[in-house]
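Researcher: First entry.
Model:
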Amino acid sequence: MSCCRRRSRFAASTVTAAFVSLRGLGKALTMDLGFKPQNALCTHFDLSQAGYASDAAADRFQRQLLERVSQIPGVGGGRLRECHRP
C-alpha cells in the first residue's frame, strides 16, 4: 500500500472519529439529567482542617448545613455527597 493511500485512510478515519465524538457530545449536552444544572451550586470542603476530628461531629455539621441551606428562600433543595480524592 502506498504512503498516500495510508495517509488518506488515516485522515478519513480521523475525521470519522471526530464526527462520531461530536455527535456523542451533542447527545450528552442535551440529555435529561433529572435536574436543572443552571442554578446548581457545587462546593468542596475538608472538615478535618476545620477542627472536626470525629466523623460524628462532621456528620452533624453537614446535616445542620443542609437544613439551613434548604431554608434559604428560593432554594429548591439540597444534597450532600461524599467525594474521596486520591
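Researcher: Second entry.
Model:
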Amino acid sequence: MLTFREKDELLEEIRDRSEVKPMLTQLAEQLRAEGKVEGKVEGKAEGKAEGKADGERSKAFEMAVKLLKRQFQPDEIAELTGLSSEEVRQLRFL
C-alpha cells in the first residue's frame, strides 16, 4: 500500500504528465505551421528562379533566331547566346 506522501508524489507526476501533453501538442502544431510557411517561401523562391531561367532561355532562343537571319554561323551564335550548337542548328529548320 502507498503512503500518503507516495500518493501525493504519484498524483503530482500524473498532473505534470497531463500538463505536458497539451504543451507538446501545441508545440507540434506551431512547428507544423512554421514548416508550412517555410515551404511556401521556398516554393515561391524556387518558382521565381525557374521562371527567370525560363525567361533567359527564351530570350537566348529569340536572339539566336535573329542572328541566324543575319547569316551568323551556328557556332558563333551558340557562343554568343549560351545555347548549344545543336540547339542553334535545329532552329534553322523551324
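Model: Note on the second entry: The chain is about 85% helix and 0% strand.
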